Amino acid sequence: MASSKPQRSSFASTSRTHARPSRVIIDENVVTETFNPEKRKLSLKRKTLTSCQSSICGYLSPWPTYASGQTILHNRKPCSDDYWKKTRSWKQSTLGATKPRFLEQLENYLRKELLLLELSTDSAQELRLQPYREIFDFFIEDFKTYKPLLSSIKNAYEVMLAHQREEIRALKPLKAKLVTVNEDCDERILAMRAEERSEISMLKKEKMGLLKLIDKKNEEKISLQSEVTKLRKSLAEEYLRYLTERDARKILIADLNELRYQREDMSLAQSPGIWGEDPVKLTLALKMTRQDLARTQMELNTMKANFGDVVPRRDFEMQEKINKDLQEQLESLRDDYEEVRKEHEILLQLHMVTLKERDQFFTELQEIQRTSTPRPDWTKCEDVIAGGSERWQMLAEGKNSDQLVDVLLEEIGEGLLREKDFFHGLGYEESILPPFLRYDGVVENKKPTKKDVINLLKDAWKERLVEEQKEKFSDFFFNFLENRFGSTDAMAWAYTIFENIKLFRSNDLMRQFYEILMEKKSESVFIKQKETVTQLLKELINVDSQNEGLLTMEQLSTVLKSTFPFKKEDKIQELMEAGGWHANSSNADLLNYRALFLEDEEGQSMPFVYKLWEQYIFEKDEYLQELKQELGLELREEVTLPKLREVLMIIDPSLDKQTLNSYLNQAFQVSVTEVPEESVENEENIVAQLRTVLERLEVIDIRRKGAREQEPAVGS
After folding, report:
1. Which H/E stretch holds residue 424?
2. How far apart are CA 339 and CA 335, in angstroms?
3. The Translin-associated factor X-interacting protein 1 N-terminal domain covers which part of the protein (predicted)?
C-alpha cells in the first residue's frame, strides 16, 4: 500500500519580492525549486494516485484532529530558540501519530523557505507571507473539488491586503507631516513656556516691588497715626488751658466790677458837701422852677389852640406819597378787574358751550350704554388663565381694555398653537410670501416654549450684527435656521417661529422681529436703536469714574442732554422719571444706572429703554408730519424728487448728502446712483404719491440730524 500514500516529488514556489538565484533543495526525496523573480511557475510532480488515495481513505483522513493545532503555522521566527523548543516538544507529543507524507513535505518546505528570508528588512513581514501563499496554492491545486472556494478565499484576502497596502502608503506622508506638526507644537510650547517664565519672573518682581511699596505705605500710615494721636493729645491740653484761662478771666472781671462799685461808694461817702447845701437857696430855686413851668404850660396851650388843625410838612409829604401809591394801585386794580371781567364773560360763554356739549355727550353716553355691551369684568379671567390670579394680575397691570384683549388673545392663541401638530404650507407665491415660508405641504410644529423662541431670536440677532448684512434679512433668517437645525428641519422651524412671533405681539423683541421679517420695518431701525442704547451706556460708564455702577440724578440728566442734544426738556424729564427720578428726589440721590439697561427672561426691556423707544417713534412721526406740512400737499397728490429734497433740507439743514440720498432712494425706490443731481428734467420725471412716500419713509430709520434754522422775523 506504499503507492496509496500521497507523495510530492517536487513543488514550486510563487514569485518573491526579493531577488534570489535559482536553486534546488533536496530533502527526503522532496525536491523544491525556487524560481527567479521575473517568472515563477507552480510545478509539482504528482504521483499517480489510485481511487483509494482520495481524501476519504487517503493519508489526510487518519491524521488525528488533536494534532491539527500543532502545525508550524504560527507567528514566530523560525530561527528562534523558542521555535525549536516548541518544534521538539511537538514532535515528542506526536510520536504516537503518524503524519501524512504530503503534510511533512509541506512543513519542511515552509520551514526552509522561512529560514531563507531576511527578516531584518522593512518588508520582512510582507515577504514572510509569500511561503504561506505558496503552500495555500499547493492546497488549491491538490484539492480540485474545493479549488473554486479556496481560490475565492485567497483572492478576497489578496484584495484586502492590497487595499491595506494602499492605505499604509497613503498614511506615510501624513505620519511625516504629523511628526513635523508635533515638532512645531513642541517648539511653540517651549517658546510659550519660556515667555511665561519670563512674564512670571517680571510679575514676581513687580509683586515684590508692590509689597515693598505697601510696607512703606503702612509705615507711613503708622507714623501718621502716631502724629495724629500726639496732635489730639496736645489739642486736648490746649483746650483745657484755654478753658481754665476763660474761667479765670471771668472771675477777674467780676472782681474788678466789685472793686469799682466799692470805689464809687467810698467816693460818695467822702463828699458830704452835696447834701449840706443851704435850704433857702433850694426854696428859691424851686419857686423859680415852678414859674418857668407855668409859663411853659401857657405857651404850650397857646400853640395847641393856634396850630391844633395844622399838619406837619413831613407828615403831609408822607401822606401825599401814600395817597399817590394808592391811586396807582387803584388804577392797576381797575385794569385787572376789567380783564377779569372780560375773561369771566368768555368763561361764561365757554361754560354754556361746555354745558351744551356735556348734555350732548350725556345723551350719547346713554345711547351708547343702551346699545353697547357692558364693560367686561376682567377678574373673571383669573380662573381661566394658567397661573391663577397672581399671573393674571401681573399680566393685566397697567394695561387698558384693548391691551387686555391682546393679552387674552395671546394666551388663547398659545394654547391653540400648542395643540397643533402640523402647519400647512402656504405655497410658492413669490410676490406675497417671503422665502422662508415658500413651501407646499405639511410641516411639523416643533412646539418650543416662549423662552426658547426668544433665545433663538437673540442668537439670530447676534449673528446678524456680526456679519456684513449683504443678503436680505428673510434670506439670512432661513440660512440661520438651516445652519442651526439642518436643511430638513429648517422649514418646520421657520413656520413654528413665524407663528409664535405673529401671535405674541405684546413682546417687543418678537414684534420687532416680525415687522422686519415682513418688511414693515427696516432692520436698520432696530440696529440704530441698539447702537443708541449702547452709546448711552458707554457715556454713563465714562462718567462713573469710580466704576461703582452708581450715578447721581444730576449726572444722569447731564449725560442725557449731551447724548440727545435735540430732545426737549420735558422729554429729558420723562426719561429721568422712567429711570427712577420722582418729585421728592434730589439731585444728589444715587441711581444704579446699569439696572436701567437689563432685560427680563422674555427679552422685555426696562421702562427706561422702552421710554427711549417710545420717544424715537414719537419723534419719527413728528418728523414725518412736519415734512407733510411743509410740502403742503394732500396724501393722494404726487410729489417730485426735487421738491422732496428741497423740503428735507429746509426742515433738517444738517442732513449730509449720503443720508439725504438714502431717504430719496427709499421714498422713490430708485438706486442711489440713479438719483440725478444735474439734470432737472430727469428729476421732474421721478414722482410718487405722497401717501406712498410717507409709508416708505416710515419703514426705515429716519430721524432729525440737527436743529431747524429759525425763520427771520417779519420787518427785521
Report:
1. strand 422-424
2. 6
3. 107-216
- 8 Å CB contact between 418 and 521: no
| Residue 636, phi-psi category: left (phi > 0), alpha (psi -120 to 50), beta (remainder) | alpha
Amino acid at 416: L
pLDDT digits (tens, 9 = 90+) for 606-630: 888 888 888 888 888 888 888 888 8
Q: Is 28 left (phi over 0), alpha (psi -120 to 50) or beta?
A: left
* Intervals of the chain under pLDDT 70: 1-97, 118-124, 268-277, 372-375, 383-384, 387, 398, 431, 468-469, 582-588, 671-684, 709-716
Distance of CA 12 to the CA centre of its chain: 79
Q: Which residues pair with 687 in a beta bridge?
A: 640
Helix (H, G, I), strand (E, B) or coil at 443: strand
Q: What is the DSSP letter of 65?
A: G
**Between helices 450-466 and 508-517, what is the axis angle to 10°?**
60
The Cα-based distances of 326 to 39, 312, 335, 337, 509 in angstroms read 147, 21, 14, 16, 69
Whole-angstrom CA distances from 341 to 163, 314, 335, 348 are 115, 40, 10, 10
The 3-state DSSP composition of the chain as helix, strand, coil percent (nearest 5) reads 65, 5, 25
Which residues are 511's β-sheet partners? none
Record the cell numbers describing residue 238, joined without a space.
490746649
Query: Grid cell 435735540 — which residue?
Result: 566
DSSP-assigned letters across all residues of 528-596? HHHHHHHHHHHHHHHH-TT-SSEEEHHHHHHHHHHH-TTS-HHHHHHHHHHTT--TT--TT-EEEGGGG
Q: Are the beta carbons of 576 and 553 closer than 8 angstroms?
A: yes
C-alpha cell at 478: 432661513
| Spatial separation of the C-alpha atoms in residues 300 and 293, rounded to whole Å | 10
CA separation, residue 481 to residues 60, 456, 465 (Å) = 71, 9, 16
